[in-house]
């Protein structure tokens, strides 16, 4: 874990999420341990606000989203939804909050351990690099409580793991192990439980040392692959690639290579 002279801001006074900074990494932790980080609307609103704040802060290059060792998040808060009518669910329009997280431009690294279920799995899939502990159990068990995934599970899981596994997970409600999730392409790396947070932070720090504009545009280009034809995606990639030649970071990165030294990117 990289600490040293890194500025660390105090924890937020709001208890549902905790946040701090570590160098150029903005860290957000879900903080409802008694209910395995069940995602109620208040938590989601605070999460979106904090992520947007990090997205807008020039000194922050990468966001790290973590749960606890026992649970990344066991889903949306079932108690909060149980007695709501269709109209109440519709009028609340909670999807607007989830969409705010979807629009974050900076890379999001997820530190995942224990349960990542339902909305927890959907939140994890909105992150860009997923570091999972060996203990991780990932699922979309909404079918067991009479509903189905509603925050992207049927779409993102299917794109990530293919129809066969997605149907298995969503229709049976079974949990994937970390090893299964890695083999299926749902998580980026699997690490021992005691290292899940420190490894995720190391990776976030490594990303934060890259050129921040290139990071953001690379994320944008990869996500475009889910929404376009190959030809449109290639066209989009090409434009972003050209754009990077308008940055000082490109000059610095390539000059540093030629001069056999480490680059110092400024995000300009
Ligand atoms: N919501 C509320 N409380 C939860 C919870 C959840 N999703 N998951 C766990 N808890 C609570 C438990 O009720 C328990 O509270 P107490 O009884 O101690 O008060 C505490 O956390 C510890 O849980 P357990 O005692 O059950 O612990 P176990 O180790 O025995 O079991 C478990 C862990 C994760 C297997 C189990 O808790 C479980 O099955 N949890 C529910 C998992 C689940 O069904 N998840 C999907 C929820 S539906 C939307 C966006 C998203 C969604 C919906 C709408 N919009 C934008 C509109 C998403 C929906 C979902 O995620």
Average pLDDT: 94
* Rg over alpha carbons: 19 Å
What is the spatial order of strands in the main beta sheet? Answer: 1-2-3-5-7-10
Helix content: 40-55%
β-sheet strand percentage: 15-25%
Ligand types? 4-(N,N-dimethylamino)cinnamoyl-COA
Report how far the terminal alpha carbons are from each other.
27 Å
Structure classification: alpha/beta
Largest sheet: 6 strands, mixed
Task: Spell out the key features of this protein.
268 residues, alpha/beta, four-stranded mixed β-sheet, 12 helices, 45% helix, globular, disordered N terminus, binds 4-(N,N-dimethylamino)cinnamoyl-COA
What is the secondary structure topology, with strand pairs?
Layout: E1 17-22, E2 25-30, H1 41-56, E3 62-66, E4 71-73, H2 78-81, H3 86-92, H4 95-102, E5 108-112, E6 115-117, H5 119-125, E7 129-133, E8 137-139, H6 153-161, H7 163-172, E9 176-177, H8 178-184, E10 189-191, H9 196-208, H10 212-224, H11 230-244, H12 248-258
Parallel strand pairs: 2-3, 3-5, 4-6, 5-7, 6-8, 7-10
Antiparallel strand pairs: 1-2, 8-9
The structure holds 4-(N,N-dimethylamino)cinnamoyl-COA (DAK).
Written account of the structure:
This protein is of the alpha/beta class. It is 45% helix and 15% strand. It is built from 12 helices and 10 strands. The protein has helices at 41-56, 78-81, 86-92, 95-102, 119-125, 153-161, 163-172, 178-184, 196-208, 212-224, 230-244, 248-258, and strands at residues 17-22, 25-30, 62-66, 71-73, 108-112, 115-117, 129-133, 137-139, 176-177, 189-191. It has a 6-stranded mixed β-sheet with strand order 1-2-3-5-7-10, with helices on both faces. It has a 4-stranded mixed β-sheet with strand order 4-6-8-9. Helix 1 runs parallel beside helix 4 (95-102), helix 6 crosses helix 7 (163-172) and helix 10 (212-224) packs antiparallel against helix 11 (230-244). The protein is globular and about 60 Å long. Bound molecules: 4-(N,N-dimethylamino)cinnamoyl-COA. 4-(N,N-dimethylamino)cinnamoyl-COA binds next to helix 2, helix 4 and strand 6.
């Amino acid at each position: 874990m990289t600490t040293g002279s890194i500025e660390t801001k105090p924890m937020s006074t709001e208890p549902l999420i905790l946040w701090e900074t570590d160098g150029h990494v903005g860290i957000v932790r879900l903080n409802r341990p008694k209910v395995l980080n069940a995602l109620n609307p208040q938590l989601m609103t605070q999460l979106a606000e904090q992520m947007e704040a990090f997205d807008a802060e020039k000194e922050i290059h990468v966001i790290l989203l973590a749960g606890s060792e026992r649970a990344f998040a066991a889903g949306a808060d079932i108690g909060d939804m149980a007695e709501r009518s269709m109209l109440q669910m519709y009028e609340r329009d909670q999807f607007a909050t989830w969409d705010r997280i979807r629009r974050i431009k900076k890379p999001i690294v997820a530190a995942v351990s224990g349960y990542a279920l339902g909305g927890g799995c959907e939140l994890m899939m909105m992150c860009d690099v997923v570091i999972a502990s060996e203990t991780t159990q990932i699922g979309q068990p909404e079918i067991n409580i009479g509903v189905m995934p509603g925050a992207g599970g049927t779409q993102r899981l299917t794109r990530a793991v293919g129809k066969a596994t997605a149907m298995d997970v969503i229709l049976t409600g079974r949990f994937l192990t970390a090893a299964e999730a890695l083999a299926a392409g749902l998580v980026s790396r699997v690490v021992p439980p005691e290292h899940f947070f420190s490894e995720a932070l190391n990776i976030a720090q490594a990303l934060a040392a890259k050129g921040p504009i290139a990071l953001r545009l690379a994320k944008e280009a990869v996500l475009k692959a889910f929404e376009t034809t190959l030809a449109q995606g290639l066209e989009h990639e090409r434009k972003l690639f050209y754009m990077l030649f308008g940055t000082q970071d490109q000059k610095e990165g390539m000059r540093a290579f030629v001069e056999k030294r480490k680059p110092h990117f400024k995000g300009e």
